[in-house]
Amino acid sequence: KMAAAAGAAAAAGLWSEVNRCGQNGDFARALKSVNKILQINKDDVTALQCKVVCLIQNGNFKEALGVINTHTKVLTSDVIAFEKAYCEYRLNRIESALKTIQSASQQTDKLKELYGQVLYRLERYDDCLAAYRDLIRNSQDEYEEERKTNLSAVVAAQSTWEKVVPEDLGLREATYELCYNSACALIGQGKLNEAMKKLQKAEELCRQSLSDDSDVTEEDIEAELAIIHGQMAYIMQLQGRTEDALQLYNQIIKLKPTDVGLLAVIANNIITINKDQNVFDSKKKVKLTNAEGVEHKLSKKQLQAIEFNKALLAMYTNQADQCRKLSASLQSQSPEHLLPVLIQAAQLCREKQHAKAVGLLQDFADQHPANAAEIKLTMAQLKIAQGSVTKACMILRSIEELQHKPGMVSALVTMYSHEEDIDSAIEVFTQAIQWYQQYQASETRGANPKSPVHLSLIREAANFKLKHGRKKEAISDLEELWKQNPKDVHTLAQLISAYSLVDPEKAKVLSKHLPSSDTMSLKVDVDALENSHGATYVRKKAGKLTGDNQQKEQGQGEVKKKKKKKKGKLPKNYDPKVTPDPERWLPMRERSYYRGRKKGKKKDQVGKGTQGSTTTGSSELDASRTASSPPTSPRPGSGAAVSATSNVIPPRHQKPAGAPATKKKQQQKKKKGGKGGW
C-alpha cells in the first residue's frame, strides 16, 4: 500500500510537471515526464495521448504514428482519430488520412478542418468548397479569417486548373493572402491586368502588416513577398514581357526562398522562356525542379507541365534517348494526352524520320478519335514540310468537325490553288456551303435563312470561280446572293458580267435592274476632292494641256520653250581634232584589240618566238615617235597615242601599255596579303 501511495504521489507530481511544461510550450521536457508516467503505467490512455501530442508538437510525426499503431487496443479511433489523421497528412499519406477521418465515429470541428485540407490536397475542389462553407457557417472563433483564406484558395484553384468561372464569395480582401488568392482566380480567367493590380495591392498590404513588427527585417519581408513577385513575373510572361519576367524570376532565385514548390515553378517558367536557347542555363534550372518534396507542394497539372518541359529540354539538347524515355513515361501516365506523342513525333522529325513520325501520329489518332483533329493538323503540317501538299489536303479534309470552318476552307482552297487543282478547290467550297444549308435547314425547320458565314462562303466561292474563268459555275452562286439581297448592286453587276459571256439576252434583262445614274447619289464632298493633293496635280496638268491645244488651234501664242540640254563633261586631255575610239564604251576585255594579260612577264619583256630570235625593238613599237601619226583620243590605261600608218603595228595587235604596271600592283597587293586569303 505504501508503494502504491508513493507511486501515485510521484505520478501526480509528474502530471503537474507535464501540465506546466505544456502551458509553457516546452514539449520536449513534457515528453520526458510523460515517459516516466508510462513507466509506472504503460497503458495509461491519457499519458499515451499526451505522448503523441508532444511528439507532434516536436515534429516527430513518424514516431507519433508508431505509438498510435503500437497501442491500437488502448488508443482506439474514437480517442485518437484526429492525431492519427494529422500525422498521416503531415507525412503526405493523404489517402490514408482521408480514410482515417471518414472512419471516425464522430466528426469533430478539428476533423472537419483537417478534412478540408485533405480534400484540397487531393484536388477535390467541389467537395472542399462545400466543406469550408459548412465550417464558416457553423463556426465562430478567432480562426474565421484563416477559413476564408482557405475558401478563396479553393476558388482560385478551380479557376486555374478546372477553368471554372469563380462565383463572388463576397469576401472582404483585408489581408494580402486574400488579395493574392483573388489575383490567382483572375489569372485563371485571363484577366491579367486586373490580376496585376490585385497583386500590387497584396504586396502593399504584406509590407504594411510585416513592417509593424520590429523583429522582421527587410530580408524577411522580401522572402514573404517572393510568392507574390513570382506571380507578377508569371503575368509578365503571359503578356509577352519576357525580359521583365526573367529579371524578376532571377531576383527571386537569388533570395534562396525555402519554399521548394515556388523555386520549382520559377525554374520551370525560366526554362519555357529559354526554349531551345540558353540550354546550359535551363540545365541548371531543371535541378531545382527535382528537389525533395516538390511533388507534395505542387498540383498534378504543375508537375505534369514540368515533366513535359524536361522532355522538350532533352530534345533541344539532343538527348534523344532521354527524350524518348520521358515522353514514353508521360504517355503511359496520361494515354489520352496530346503532348507526349507530339514530343515523340518532333524528336523523330529531328532525326529525319518523317514517315515514322506521321505513322506514330496516325496510330494515336486511330486510338483516340476525340483528339484526332489536333493530331491530324500536325500530320498535315509534316506533309507540307515534306512538299506533299495534296496528301496534306487529304488529311485536312478527313477532319469532319472542321471541314465547314471558314479557316479550314480558306486553307484548303489556298493549297489546292497552289497545286493548280481548281476543281478540288471548288469542291471544298461546295461541300462547306452544303453543310451550312443542311445545318440551317435543321435548325430553322425549313425556313432556311442564310447566316453571315454561309453568305460569305457563297460570295468567296463565286469570286473564286470568276477569277479562274468558271463563270457558268459562278452564276448560280451569284443568283443566290442576289436573291438574298436584291439591293446589292455589286452582286448584280457581277451577275450581269457573268451572263454577258453565257447568255447576252439574260444579261440585258438583268441590266434593267441596275439603278439609273440619276437615282444614284454619291455622298462625295466635291470641294474637298478637288482641293486634295492628287486632284490639284491632275487639274494643273490638264489645264496646261488644254491651254496648249487652244493655242495650236488658234495658231497663236508662243512656241513651247525647249529645255536646254546640259553639256556633257569631257575628259581633261580631250582633243577635238582627234577622232575618238569607237570602242571606248566597251569594257577592255570586249574590245577587238584586247589579247588578254600574260602572266609571269615583266614590264620590259616584249620578246616572242624561239630562244635566240630577235624581235622589233621597243623603240620601234612606240607609236609616239612617228611624226606622221595623227593623234587620237587617249584610251584608259594607254600612255601613248596610236599611229594609223602602215609601218606600225595596228592597235588590235597591241596590248595596253598600262596593263603590266597594273598587274605588278596587283601582285604586290597579293604578296602583302600573305596566305590569309580574303
From TrEMBL:
Residues 94-149 form a coiled coil. Residues 572-593 have a biased composition (Basic and acidic residues). TPR repeats lie at residues 226-259. One of its GO terms (biological process) is SRP-dependent cotranslational protein targeting to membrane. Its main location: cytoplasm. SUPFAM superfamilies: TPR-like (SSF48452). Gene3D superfamilies: Tetratricopeptide repeat domain (1.25.40.10). GO terms for molecular function: 7S RNA binding; ribosome binding. Residues 540-596 form the Signal recognition particle SRP72 subunit RNA-binding domain. Residues 539-678 are annotated as: Disordered. InterPro entries: Signal_recog_part_SRP72_RNA-bd, SRP72, SRP72_TPR-like, TPR-like_helical_dom_sf, TPR_rpt. This is Signal recognition particle subunit SRP72. The gene is Srp72.
